[in-house]
């Protein structure tokens, strides 16, 4: 296998003592996962629990350690893959390093096949209170969240909301001290009626709606929506278009970004730049000339001027 392409990566994230090492150890002891593949186990932090290589299901697993974030470069990763003759990579990632550092460092052709986030249920809420950006960073793209050391008296809804504020797609598992595992089955109804003739998006629901539209665009095809937004007029936009949207904060003030959609209207030239309006428009997915690709485009139906919402920056919580 070429070291520059076709390299599957299995990514395990979480903070110290979150249970990553134990889970990876058990995974590498399982012959269903380890059947002789040459594997590079890359450790980006060292916790109290140590690996037991003698118990791995295969002798083709080699461990390497990165002691500093500065070592996380494409060149270094390729060198380690070549040194170990790896056919795949398992990464235990440092919870204090942002994931963008890793994704930027992945060599061409290295693809994250699966991403898991592990958390100690006794401490993760405090982590979220004090280091929200780092917690959100690990939740936003993972496929499975495992809350270890979960106790019957703990409120699942707190942990469910923590995950759903970052991702609607991640599966959630609660692992109890006795080894019992329960999967989250809390239903998240959207805070608006998708079957209504006009889907009314409340001021507090813009961020949820915009993310849901991004994650499941097909269900919005042909829908008519009404929402409060800022109207922006930009010279680089095609004629008869403007941008309708709001600033959204995903995890912290540093993460605020404008989340908007192109709106087509023959009288777009009459729109005053940076003004608030209540916009009614139809959503269709088609080639978007403003961005040069296919995506959601609004077709103007009507609007009325309005004041900014009480919280101009939309949030998920």
* Beta-strand content bin: 25-35%
The beta-strand count equals 15
Distance between the termini: 45 Å
Radius of gyration equals: 23 Å
The mean pLDDT is 92
Gross morphology: elongated
Order of helices and strands: EHEEHEHEHHEHEEEHEEEEEE
How do the strands and helices of this protein lay out in sequence?
Layout: E1 7-14, H1 20-29, E2 39-43, E3 61-65, H2 74-84, E4 88-92, H3 99-105, E5 110-120, H4 124-130, H5 132-139, E6 144-148, H6 156-164, E7 171-175, E8 181-183, E9 199-200, H7 206-215, E10 224-232, E11 241-249, E12 256-264, E13 275-288, E14 293-305, E15 314-315
Parallel strand pairs: 1-4, 1-5, 2-3, 2-4, 5-6, 6-7, 9-10, 11-15, 12-14
Antiparallel strand pairs: 7-8, 10-11, 10-13, 11-12, 13-14
Helix pairs in contact: 4-5
């Amino acid at each position: 296998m070429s070291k520059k392409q076709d390299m599957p990566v299995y990514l395990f994230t979480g903070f110290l003592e979150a249970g990553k090492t134990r889970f990876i150890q058990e995974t590498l002891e399982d012959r269903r996962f380890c059947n002789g593949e040459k594997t590079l186990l890359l450790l980006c932090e060292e916790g109290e629990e140590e690996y037991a290589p003698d118990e791995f299901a295969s002798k083709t697993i080699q461990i390497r350690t990165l002691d500093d974030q500065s070592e996380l470069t494409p060149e270094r990763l390729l060198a380690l893959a070549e040194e170990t003759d790896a056919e795949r990579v398992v990464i235990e990632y440092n919870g204090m390093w942002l994931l963008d550092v890793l994704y930027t460092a992945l060599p061409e052709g290295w693809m994250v096949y699966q991403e898991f986030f592990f958390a100690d249920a006794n401490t993760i809420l405090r982590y979220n209170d004090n280091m929200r950006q780092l917690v959100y960073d690990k939740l936003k793209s993972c496929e499975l969240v495992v809350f270890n050391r979960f106790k019957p008296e703990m409120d699942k809804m707190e942990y469910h909301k923590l995950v759903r504020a970052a991702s609607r797609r991640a599966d959630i598992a609660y692992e109890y001290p006795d080894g019992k595992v329960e999967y989250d089955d809390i239903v998240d109804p959207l805070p608006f009626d998708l079957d209504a003739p006009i889907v009314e998006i409340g001021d507090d629901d813009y961020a949820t709606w915009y993310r849901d539209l991004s994650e499941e665009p097909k269900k919005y095809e042909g829908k008519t929506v009404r929402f409060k937004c800022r109207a922006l007029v930009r010279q680089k936009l095609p004629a008869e278009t403007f941008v309708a949207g709001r600033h959204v904060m995903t995890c912290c003030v540093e993460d605020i970004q404008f989340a908007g959609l192109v709106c087509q209207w023959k009288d777009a030239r009459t729109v005053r730049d940076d003004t608030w309006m209540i916009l009614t428009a139809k959503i269709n997915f088609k080639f978007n000339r403003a961005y040069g690709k296919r995506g959601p485009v609004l077709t103007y139906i009507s609007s009325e001027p309005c004041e900014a919402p009480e919280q101009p920056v939309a949030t998920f919580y």
